[in-house]
Structures are given as structure tokens and as C-alpha cells.
Specification:
431 residues; mainly beta; six-stranded mixed β-sheet; four-stranded antiparallel β-sheet
């Protein structure tokens, strides 16, 4: 008599639960732009959300611990002249985030650990090269300061953010709109999906497509009939892929294995309200003491709701099987090393004692001068001025003081002029 063998997996009972009401982020005007991006990016320090903004594009950045009702005057990150379409935190610096916009530019921002008083309006660097709106950005997983952008001009551009220059332009590879782009683990290859119904694996440094339009899928999973865009999130540490449908109210998750049938349905987290977007916390931002293996940040119309995924365990000890060493914040390569052909696996860290985010690290942009090796004279946006050791916040503070002093001088000059006119009028009247 045969018995059905149940597949053994430690992730068969992953349990999803929303946080309590006071741990949500309330009163956020989530963007209504029609776009396939997730609208939300998170890391161990911050949650960033694309928001509605009059006369341009903006996103809000909140310290992770600043839950509850968000002040309506909370500073925004503004600088784009059209809606922001995508945002992505740098994996090697928790204070640096990139944004892509309908205005055809990509901007890179330094976010301070403290909450700024005013809107952040000056990016560290602006990357200009696309001719149409830019809907996708993605940082390289192992090389410092390498950023990918994909636009509606069907181009993929790779940038060195540290110098503000283009490294590579991948053109004539896509015949239509690029839907999504993803790196492999060491950043040697990238995969794209396109409106022309082709999946391409690209070697960006050789600037060639190495595989395209696979004959047969190794596994086919029937989903529901919803026409919302699926936002996939893959955790290589657990080999679990989470599928969140935009406009859907559920998160389905599957375990991926090396043997047939390859894809194993685990469970579905369901809720009542649909999601407008979704953020996914890197593994180093999770609470290992509670056996948390994933955390989502679900966007509603006016709030952001964290959802915690755990594997229930009776023991209070560190669960090594749930938390293999995971990519940390240190890059494995410099941008020029990667461009020259080097590859390196991510630099891994242990989560045994939890992860403590490092303090604010400055992103220094040194633009190359093709005429001379010396730094260009005079201040320019994205360049350091005078002393190269001056930090960006210190420099911004000095520039802000100069602007304020100029305004004060202009106001005093106007006041003196008005008083002189009154005195002249008074003197003429008494004559």
C-alpha cells in the first residue's frame, strides 16, 4: 500500500502577520502615477515611498522607527521636474538612494541620519543620458557606485555614480519597452523582460545578449485571473520567491529547488485591502530573535503597513538553518575593477548577533575633467569645492548660511533704500 510522501521543508509553515496599528506609517499620500514599479524601497535605516507632489516629483524618507502619523510638513526629497517612477537604496550605503523620473533623469541623494528641517532639493549627482522617461533603476549587487537605469527609449545605461559618468550604454538590444531588469548574484549578468515578449540574459560588459526566448519553461505555475502587475521578490538565502500583485490583496510564496518540479507552492498571505505598491526589507534588516525571514512594506492609499513573515520555532537560540551568512554593506569590487572584467561574490556577514546599521557615510562624487587631471575651478553641483575633505552636509550647511546672509543683506539694502527715500521726502517737505 503506497503512502503519499509529504515533501520536507522548513518553510512549509511560514506565517505572515501585519504589525499593530501604532507600528504603521499613516497619512502618506502615496503616488497615483500609472507605473509598474513598487513605489517603495526599504533598508535597515529608512523606508522611502514615492508620493503625490504638485509641480514635479517627490518621495518621502522616514526613519524606520518613526511610525505612526506622519506630520503633513515632513520634509520630502524633491528635485525632479516630473513624477518619480522608481527608487532604490544603495546596497553598500544605507544613506544613499537613487530616483528615476519621467523628466528623463536619474538623481542620487544623500539622506542624513537626522530628520532634515527642509525639503532635500539638491542631489549629490544628476545622471543625464536618457531621451525618454526612466522607469527602472537598480544598483549593482557587488560593485561600488555602479547603477543601472532603463528608460522608455529602450536603452539600458550603466553609470559610475562616483564620477557621474556613463560606463556602458546597451542599445539595439530591445525592440520595445523594457518592463523589468534584474542582476544575478555577483552582477556579471543581467536579465530583462520586454514588451516584445522576450526574456533576455545580457552580458553588459561584452554588450551582447547571451540567451533569449527560452524554448520551454522548466516550471509553469497557474496564477489567478487578476490583470494586475506581479511584483516578484526573491530571497536567495531561503530560495523563496514572493509574488505580490499590484491591486491584489495577497502575497503568494513558493520555494524554488534544483530538482523537478522546481517550484513548490508554500502558502498565501491574504488581507482585505489591495496593495498599491510593496517594499521588501534586505535580510540584514530583519529581527533574527523572532525568526523573521521576510518583511514587506505594503502601500495603501494613505498608509504603509509592514507585514512580518516568520517561521515559528520554540527555541530562543539563533536559528542557523534559517539565517545563512548574507550579503553585507561592503562592496566586493570598485566600479573600474568590475568594468575591466573582474567578478566577485557578495561580501557576506553573519546575522548571529543581529545587524547594527553603520553611521552615515558620505558619497563623494569626483567628476573627471577630460582636459586636465586637476579638479575644475569653481564650485559646481556634484563637485567638491576647496577642501576635498569637507563633508557634504558641512558644505550644504555653509552654502545655506551664505544664501541666508545674501537674503539678509538684500533685505537690509531695501530697508535702507526705503528709509533714505522717506528721509528725503521728509527733508523736502520741511524746506
Amino acid at each position: 500500500m503506497s503512502r503519499r510522501v509529504v515533501r520536507q521543508s522548513k518553510f512549509r509553515h511560514v506565517f505572515g502577520q501585519p504589525v499593530k496599528a501604532d507600528q504603521m506609517y499613516e497619512d502618506i499620500r502615496v503616488s497615483k502615477v500609472t507605473c509598474d514599479s513598487s513605489f517603495c524601497a526599504v533598508n535597515p535605516k529608512f523606508v522611502a515611498i514615492i508620493v503625490e507632489s504638485g509641480g514635479g516629483g517627490a518621495f518621502i524618507v522616514l526613519p524606520l522607527a518613526k511610525t505612526g502619523r506622519v506630520d503633513k510638513n515632513h520634509p520630502l526629497v524633491t528635485g525632479h521636474t516630473a513624477p518619480v517612477l522608481d527608487i532604490d537604496w544603495c546596497p553598500h550605503n544605507d544613506n544613499v538612494i537613487a530616483s528615476a523620473s519621467e523628466d528623463t533623469t536619474v538623481m542620487v541623494w544623500q539622506i542624513p541620519d537626522y530628520v532634515p528641517v527642509r525639503n532635500i532639493t539638491e542631489p549629490v549627482v544628476t545622471l543625464e543620458g536618457h531621451s525618454k522617461r526612466v522607469g527602472i533603476i537598480s544598483w549593482h549587487p557587488t560593485a561600488r557606485n555602479v547603477l543601472l537605469s532603463a528608460g522608455c527609449d529602450n536603452l539600458v545605461i550603466l553609470w559610475n555614480v562616483g564620477t557621474g559618468e556613463m560606463l556602458l550604454v546597451l542599445e539595439d538590444m530591445h525592440t520595445d519597452l523594457i518592463y523589468n531588469v534584474g542582476w544575478n548574484r555577483n552582477g556579471s549578468l543581467l536579465v530583462t523582460t520586454c514588451k516584445d515578449k522576450k526574456v533576455r540574459i545580457i552580458d553588459p560588459r561584452k554588450q551582447q545578449v547571451v540567451a533569449e526566448n527560452f524554448e520551454e519553461p522548466i516550471a509553469l505555475q497557474e496564477m489567478d485571473t487578476s490583470n494586475g502587475v506581479l511584483l516578484p521578490f526573491y530571497d536567495p538565502d531561503s530560495s523563496i520567491v514572493y509574488l505580490c500583485g499590484k491591486g491584489d490583496s495577497s502575497i503568494r510564496y513558493f520555494e524554488i529547488t534544483d530538482e523537478a518540479p522546481y517550484v513548490h507552492y508554500l502558502n498565501t498571505y491574504s488581507s482585505k485591502e489591495p496593495q498599491r505598491g510593496m517594499g521588501f526589507m534586505p535580510k540584514r534588516g530583519l529581527d533574527v530573535s523572532k525568526c523573521e525571514i521576510a518583511r514587506f512594506f505594503k502601500l495603501h492609499e494613505r498608509k504603509c503597513e509592514p507585514i512580518v513573515m516568520t517561521v515559528p520555532r520554540k527555541s530562543d537560540l539563533f536559528q542557523e538553518d534559517l539565517y545563512p551568512d548574507t550579503p553585507g554593506p561592503e562592496p566586493a569590487l570598485e566600479a573600474d575593477e568590475w568594468l575591466s572584467g573582474k567578478d566577485a561574490e557578495p561580501v557576506l556577514i553573519s546575522l548571529r548577533d543581529g545587524y547594527v546599521p553603520v553611521k552615515n557615510r558620505e558619497l563623494k562624487v569626483v567628476k573627471k575633467n577630460i582636459l586636465d587631471n586637476k579638479p575644475p575651478p569653481g564650485p559646481r553641483r556634484g563637485h567638491s569645492i576647496c577642501d576635498p575633505d569637507i563633508s557634504q552636509p558641512a558644505l550644504e550647511e555653509v552654502l545655506e548660511e551664505i544664501r541666508a546672509l545674501k537674503e539678509t543683506v538684500q533685505a537690509q539694502e531695501k530697508r535702507i533704500s526705503d528709509l533714505e527715500n522717506k528721509l528725503c521726502h521728509f527733508t523736502n517737505g520741511t524746506d
